[in-house]
Design a protein that fits this description.
Layout: E1 11-14, E2 19-30, E3 43-49, E4 55-59, H1 60-63, E5 67-68
Antiparallel strand pairs: 1-2, 1-5, 2-3, 3-4
Length: 73
């Protein structure tokens, strides 16, 4: 999935958590020491929630690993 495809309420499958999650429409930056760049560059992430309300932060590099699921009703 690409960030251009994200819209509030988009249903995605997260394979490493084995659950469906929904995009909340919230983007944030995490401040502090960034282990990848070895400096204090903020990391950008997207906030997702599952059906139970548990929040998950998905970073830019993890976003492409998510798979969009279509609603079937």
């Amino acid at each position: 999935m690409k960030k251009e495809e994200l819209k509030k309420g988009t249903k995605v499958w997260c394979w490493w958590k084995s659950r469906n999650m929904y995009y909340t429409g919230i983007e944030r930056y995490e401040h502090g020491y960034n282990l990848e760049t070895k400096d204090y560059t903020p990391r950008h992430y997207y906030l997702f929630r599952d059906l139970c309300g548990a929040e998950t932060e998905i970073y830019d590099e993890q976003l492409e690993k998510l798979e969009e699921r279509k609603e079937t009703r």
